[in-house]
Specification:
The chain is built from three helices and no strands. It is an all-alpha fold and 47 residues long. It has a domain of 30 residues. The protein starts with a helix and ends with a helix.
């Protein structure tokens, strides 16, 4: 299987998805949420 056939089946992002990906505020918010989830996971792991 070549890369060309794999990539041709890939979904193309919509305009809204591209705007959301380039929005710095949204990126910052997602970063904060991800870090919070990691903190919760680490604290639950330490009994």
């Amino acid at each position: 299987m070549s890369n060309a056939s794999t990539f041709s089946d890939a979904r193309v992002p919509t305009e809204a998805e591209l705007r959301a990906r380039s929005n710095l505020g949204r990126q910052l918010w997602r970063f904060v949420v991800l870090n919070f989830k990691m903190i919760v996971m680490v604290t639950k792991g330490h009994h």
